[in-house]
Amino acid sequence: SAYRLCIMRKLPSVLARTLTSGTSGSPGLPDMSEVRSKLRDIVGASTNWRDHVQAMQERKALHTLLAKRQEDLPPRRMKDSYLEVILPLGSQPEIREKYLNVHNSVRFGRILEDLDSLGVLICYTHTKQEMQPRSPLSIVTALVDKINLCQKIIHPDCDIKFTGNVSWVGKTSMEVKMHMLQLHDGDYSPVLDATFVMVARDPENKRPAFVNPLVPETPEEEEIFKQGELNKMRRIDFSTASLLKMAPTAEERNIVHDIFLNTLDTRQEGKGTVSFHSRKLPPNAVWMEDAKLKALQICHPEERNIFNRIFGGFLMRKAFELGWATACSYGGSRPFIVSVDDIMFQKPVEVGSLLLLSAQVCYTENNYIQVRVHSEVYNANTREHHTTNIFHFTFISENEVPQVVPKTYGGKYPIKSMLYLDGKRHFTAVMKEI
What we know:
CATH architecture of the largest domain: Roll
GO molecular function, one term: fatty acyl-CoA hydrolase activity
CATH superfamily of the largest domain: Hotdog Thioesterase
Main location: mitochondrion
Largest sheet: 10 strands, antiparallel
Family: Belongs to the acyl coenzyme A hydrolase family.
Radius of gyration: 23 Å
GO biological process, one term: acyl-CoA metabolic process
Distance between the termini: 10 Å
Order of helices and strands: HHHHEHHEEEEHHEEHEEEEEH
Protein name: ACOT9 thioesterase
Number of helices: 10
């Protein structure tokens, strides 16, 4: 399985240098509640929803603290933003309930929320100015580049440690690498690696803002920084070759045509009625249109972030849980998450929005299920729909799963075939990683 094949990448020394082992957890490390409390302090966010308008008004005055040029900001090292945070599931059983699923393991959706909060705090640590108690920057998640898991099960009664630091910096964006480890028999063993991209904006979250440059200190850090550049180029290449911009390759066109031929109902041939619409499902297969689930979420103030928009981690959790349910109902057995990739935050979600989520199984191979979740907000006043996110999840099922098959076909490549090819591309990229 993916978990046996998963290359346990050696933790970069900048991340590993302060990792310690111990059966008693890690005393003195901040926990996730402290992470969220620190974030509120950094931007001056109120815990009272009624005060949020005033709090955001007060942030306008911080405009004067923004740098006019990146060169005016002091360079930072990777270790300047390095953080370790504990999730004391073992040593503090009272917090376990929030993280527990029905299979007596940890809810991965909760981990997504924690990674999102930690990634933002790491970036605020990188950009911190000693003389400024409040940051003039609004730092938000732009992209979850990838999250690769190396363990099938996350145990609900063992402490978890998150580590991370800024690994690459552009003019106004930062790449953050995070690792999650879990305590077993006195040692922390790796569970997942995550790469997020954050962007800095002005105090009102309207325009880009400059961030401190990053200076690698060792050959190892040079390599990490160079990888950040390569990640950026890979994302640009992937976007340029998107099926929304370019036609499928010759190989992909053949794949779709082969599927069409394999699903053609040849029984109609003798009657002279065979056509594009004469289709039959092959054995052990499911039409794509029968492999989807939908959900609606009302976005309450409880789910707001420090800027009084809906928390990106909450959106990821809801999308993941719908994606998991889709994979579960499709495969007929418990699915395990293998990888999350290419989550683009296209548009913020306002408090009070109606959030519509649509999950689609778009590609399958052996035990693997590739699920795409489309997220959009519906404005009841204007009756308009706006896409906010597209999520991509790769699951592995306990049993081999049916082949998912796009049904529609014609002179042009319709949407289901495009979703199938896009899912195959994402799956292939994930398999290369692990």
